[in-house]
Backbone:
């Protein structure tokens, strides 16, 4: 009977994968602590809705500002070292915040500045970190590898971290951030144990001393490759469009839960928990799904469920029904996240992983910004269920548009950077 370690991280995937997984899970514990502690800290300093909202905006603003640059830089230098340096920068920023808190000199503007600097460093951590898995495991193991990374995110970031962060904040405002520093530094130590240093093929052996063209040149090169590769282009477009429709109702979910479903604050929190529970079960079963159902079929199933979920939320007025819907949302959403990441990593050349991943993430956060703005306006004019109807119609139309191209996306073969049109089929 296989051991727990073998089930979580099969030996065939190598020791380096286990170090990467341990580093990711440890870092996610710290991020989960901050997920609860940061809003509590901001709310303790101001009652201004604008400033509270600014704290949330600063979670994705750095992606829109620096995401493409982070991708280009990740394709130039030692990616492991870049993750270590960016995590070290996060630790320094957190240490400065703790000094301000312990000396009683912290204010809302300092906290918001720290949030922006921390978020900026996180962009580089996540972009470079997303390129490591394809360099450490075989293409056939990318699915299970991404599922294990997703499971760590769900357990550590969504489950364990937030309650711990709230508990630590009650003990003292600096405690959660001190614990986060420990987690981030531990993640640096763990990822430093990789036996192989994952360096992009185009990176220089001297660690970057060789002159490079301007960063914008690399960004344009990555965008040109992506635009010339129909399967990857379509995959990024799908993610953008579905994030717009998803974010429209999600931006007013707290009002929908408390005012439309009358679930209260605890009920609203339970919706998030239900989603995480569904996601954990889905990621644990991903190996079985991958062996028995094709990626094309799985993609169509989860996107169809997305459409039906929006419709169900638009129609229901019962809290427990919403919890059931949210459980299944968490399940299929994380299956989708694992599949889409795996397919992209298999199709993109190693030297372009950073740039294409960054475009994907800019699309994710850009879609969230657009969707939340639309959702707020729609809810203000037509009511709290209107964003769900918008999401249902938009997702249904998008699904019809992408139904056939999904087969071409999944069946496409990897191509070189220099010849993006060599293999992929035009969707």
Residues:
């Amino acid at each position: 009977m296989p051991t727990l370690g073998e089930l979580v991280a099969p030996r065939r995937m190598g020791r380096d994968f286990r170090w990467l997984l341990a580093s990711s899970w440890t870092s996610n514990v710290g991020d989960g602590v901050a997920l609860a502690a940061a809003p509590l800290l901001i709310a303790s300093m101001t009652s201004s809705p604008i400033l509270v909202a600014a704290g949330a905006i600063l979670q994705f603003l750095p992606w829109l500002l620096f995401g493409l640059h982070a991708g280009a830089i990740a394709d130039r230098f030692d990616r492991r070292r870049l993750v270590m340096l960016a995590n070290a920068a996060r630790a320094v920023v957190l240490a400065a915040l703790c000094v301000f808190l312990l000396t009683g000199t912290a204010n809302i503007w300092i906290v918001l500045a720290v949030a922006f600097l921390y978020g900026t460093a996180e962009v580089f951590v996540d972009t470079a970190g997303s390129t490591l898995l394809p360099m450490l495991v075989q293409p056939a193991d990318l699915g299970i590898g991404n599922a294990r990374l997703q499971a760590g995110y769900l357990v550590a970031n969504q489950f364990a971290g937030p309650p711990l962060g709230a508990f630590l904040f009650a003990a003292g405002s600096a405690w959660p951030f001190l614990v986060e520093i420990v987690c981030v530094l531990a993640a640096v130590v763990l990822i430093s144990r990789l036996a192989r240093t994952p360096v992009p093929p185009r990176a220089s052996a001297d660690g970057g001393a060789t002159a490079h063209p301007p960063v914008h040149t690399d960004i344009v090169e990555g965008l040109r490759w992506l635009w010339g590769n129909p399967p990857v282009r379509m995959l990024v477009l799908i993610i953008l469009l579905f994030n717009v429709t998803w974010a429209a109702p999600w931006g007013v979910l707290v009002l929908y839960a408390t005012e439309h479903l009358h679930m209260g604050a605890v009920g609203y929190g339970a919706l998030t928990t239900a989603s995480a529970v569904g996601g954990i079960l889905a990621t644990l079963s991903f190996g079985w799904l991958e062996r028995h159902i094709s990626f094309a079929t799985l993609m169509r199933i989860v996107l169809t469920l997305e459409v039906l979920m929006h419709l169900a939320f638009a129609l229901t007025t019962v809290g427990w029904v919403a919890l059931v819907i949210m459980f299944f949302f968490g399940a299929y959403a994380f299956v989708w996240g694992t599949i889409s990441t795996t397919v992209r990593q298999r199709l993109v050349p190693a030297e372009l992983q950073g740039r294409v991943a960054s475009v994907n993430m800019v699309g994710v956060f850009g879609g969230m910004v657009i969707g939340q703005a639309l959702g707020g306006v729609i809810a203000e004019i037509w009511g709290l269920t209107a964003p769900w109807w918008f999401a249902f119609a938009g997702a249904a139309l998008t699904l019809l548009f992408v139904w056939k191209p999904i087969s071409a996306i999944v069946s496409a073969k990897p191509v070189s950077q220099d010849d993006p049109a060599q293999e992929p089929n035009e969707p």
Notes: Confidence is low (pLDDT under 50) at residues 204-209, 420-427. The chain has 19 helices and no strands.
